[in-house]
Amino acid sequence: MRWMQEKGLSCRTPSPYDEEAGRARHRWANRTKPPGSLGILEDAAVQLAAISGRCPPEIRRPAVVVAGADHGVVAEGVSAFPADVTRQMMLNFAAGGAAISVLARRRQADIRIVDAGVTRPPDHPDIIDCRAGAGTANMTRGAAMTREQLAHVLDGGAELAGALVREGTDIIALGEMGIGNTTAASAVSAVLSGRPPLQLTGPGAGLDDAGVKHKAEVISRALAVNRPDAGDPLDVLRKVGGFEIAFLTGVILAAVHNRLPVVIDGFICSSAALCASRMMSGLTSYLLAGHRSAEPGHDVLLDMLDLQPLLDLQMRLGEGTGAAVSLTLIEDAVALLAGMASFSGAGVSESGGGES
Amino acid sequence: MRWMQEKGLSCRTPSPYDEEAGRARHRWANRTKPPGSLGILEDAAVQLAAISGRCPPEIRRPAVVVAGADHGVVAEGVSAFPADVTRQMMLNFAAGGAAISVLARRRQADIRIVDAGVTRPPDHPDIIDCRAGAGTANMTRGAAMTREQLAHVLDGGAELAGALVREGTDIIALGEMGIGNTTAASAVSAVLSGRPPLQLTGPGAGLDDAGVKHKAEVISRALAVNRPDAGDPLDVLRKVGGFEIAFLTGVILAAVHNRLPVVIDGFICSSAALCASRMMSGLTSYLLAGHRSAEPGHDVLLDMLDLQPLLDLQMRLGEGTGAAVSLTLIEDAVALLAGMASFSGAGVSESGGGES
User: Fold this and answer.
1) What's the CA gap between A344 and A310, in Å, rounded?
2) Which end of chain B is more exposed for a tag (fewer CB within 10 A), N or C?
3) Could you report the per-residue pLDDT of B41-68, keeping only the tens digit for each?
4) In this complex, do A97 and B345 lie within 8 Å of one another by their Cβ atoms?
């Protein structure tokens, strides 16, 4: 795609380091425990070895990127909450009072809060300005954004990922904020999956059944008006996506291009990951799914991305909270592979331990 | 029961602080997020408020207790691994090279490693001696232990829990080690659940299908020989249990008596929790299930205990690893309840944020 070429991004991911993945598997097999008994944690550490080319892999500098934006489609009554909550929550992120703020502090992660197009700009020195406009246009009346707006947020995401790479970040967890953004994520996902919108539409932050049905109808109308091209993720993002979703797509593509593992959060981040995966082949091998969200469409996206989530805590908050909680498990996996003794080193008969 | 009376333990748990639980629910409702959107983490923090009588609750000093012992029933060929691995792994715990060692360090948790009756004593200054013998007797020939041996390990567990309470521990995660101990845990669970042994028997550290069937047959034989009284958990523990399982039962009873929350690990710890829950009514409200083990009988025990596990990572290592990994999530829950801003404090319209 042209945007990819202009940014110097290949449409293939860099090859994983298969040899280091093999070394990680071999190292697990020699740690003092029954084979495979650390379950998904073993897979996560092998994946990080394959991505980073190091065995054991390390996580020294995690970052959390939270992108926020508003959505013109809220005029159709698709959210239970007033749109100004996006701005209010962005300021709450910056002031340190939101769930993702607490979790990022606990993880000692750098947090980057990005305004990709909130209606009223949240004014705070710690919020990065990458505004493409004062919210998207109402997608039931035409495209959500212009080509220029789309390029602006894709570029911004790619540049932020590049900056994080230069600063030594070794894993990025993604989050988002935007009243109305489950509607955009459902629309994008419906097009890319070829499924009817209702299958990918849920209550978001608190719609009742009638509200969910209405939301799906609004999405169907937007798809009829825009006719996005399912074979062109950028066309889909531009017509029925959101600024923060496109920004995160840019983050993912540039992070993976630079061999950084990316932890995705819930439904909205997964819709960005789905877009990115259609633009760069092999991309999902660089992704980890932090959790399974309670938002019903998330299962469909996880299946399409072929990702197994680390957590299933019935969370549905967004902001990157599921990804940030799961960061600890990924760090545990890496610390276990690095820190556990081998059978010979510990004088344990192979294979020992476990629920035996 | 007489042992309970002698130890000054009531057969009812102390009443939870319902008022503090209500305050915790109210506090969650005022944090800047859609209601209920932190899922199971919200429940965990409410539970800790109810147990500790503080809102928000705190976790300042977590402890991990790992009890190890050997099992005479291994003479029947019920484990894929040589029995000396119990001793070897106990030394590995003490030397800091096992998975639970790495995780306890990462959690900054006190770790107490207890020899409840390993065949050859693991000689290390950091291993607590609470030996009831050189492994249990073979339960297919008679009772696994004497009344005196049972009392010794129950007492030891209760005393360790009491000591941890005095040292300011505010949550205890449990773990175990013992080649052959899934056989004992399956036998105990079969009696207390009234189910056929095969339903509660799994591969442990690595049996194949034929091995699992043989193990279930061994258990059936042990039950026929011993005829444990399903209404008397101490009779069940004595006849077909294990020293470490009884020790952990003592830890749980005394911890809960002292209002400490207890995080249980996999199948074996859950069998101890089931025993304890039959001796002290209301006990399960003081328990958290760290994870769902891949050992197939664990689901049955979690159902009987009415506990929802925090993690489902396909782990089946034991040692307390599932409980230790989940400790972070419990600490996250507590930190979020304490550290998140309220709607009014952050200037956010109620209710805001979320996948909206």
Assistant:
1) 31
2) N
3) 999 999 999 999 999 999 999 999 999 9
4) yes
